[in-house]
Amino acid sequence: MLGFLLRRCGVYGLYFHNDEQRFVLSISVERDRDESEENKNDKNEPKQEEQSSGWSTGWFSSFFSSGRVDPFTRGGICTQSLLAVLKANAAEKGWRSLDFDSLLRQIGNLLNRQRESAGVIMRGSSRLDTRTLGTVWTETAEVRRALLVGLCYPATNATNATNATAKLPELHGSWNDVTDMQAWLQSENLFSASEIRSLTDEPTGNEPGRVSREQILQGLRWLLLGSGGSGGGGSGSGEARLLFHFSGHGDGLKLCPSEESDLPISDFELSEMINEFLPSNATLTCIFDCCDGTKMLDGLLRHPIAFGTTQNLY
Length: 314
Known about the structure:
Helix content: 25-40%
Number of helices: 10
Largest sheet: 7 strands, mixed
Radius of gyration: 19 Å
């Protein structure tokens, strides 16, 4: 209890200071708030591409040739821009050799080409300039688990006026984000179907789709602790590769479930869980496709790199 209060007050570190046994990476892309408001009603309208030259044109054109569509009309800007860059570097699994500065700038160039005013930020529990994606997403991991959460907050037929006004705005694309992320992870043999758990609020038949706070927390316990979420990590002394992907609403450093009566999951709660439960010899990647995603885990991870696109956001 004392430790919790001291960390809460910032007296001692709730962060991994160059922890050699564990590594945590977060990736997020977030639109500028002013642009997000302007685009709220026409978010699915494709933007006119700008003309550009240089090395970025080749990989961008290779991905969007053959009739492929603007990725940002399909899902969240973070998920879709990240996957676009990874797929563009697919030849002979070239994405494995990408260092994080290159990954950051390729995503930034894609956003610039699409005239998106956005910021890209990656944070690590230790310095990122000595690592590549291949060293983080290693092929030798004995334990592999991924939790994918995609929430669109679909409207219900409820007539309760109070409930209706408290309802989060409906999103369009978070389910696609989970589908696309899972397909890519499996295609690259990073995770098998049995190693991935997905949570979406897509309706089933006549039943409205809802994902509760407890379902997300239970999924995180499974991700960090292994089978049953009760401890041990299921990794023994072997290496573990873990991934958490959230596509949905964020609100003031909180991840919002789609059950209206539930409290959101705070950044501090998530940081506490990672700090306490992430096993030794484990790497955890967190992808936040939500508002305030670029600020998530900033108290836990003290090694950021950032890229601002059409405006100097960072």
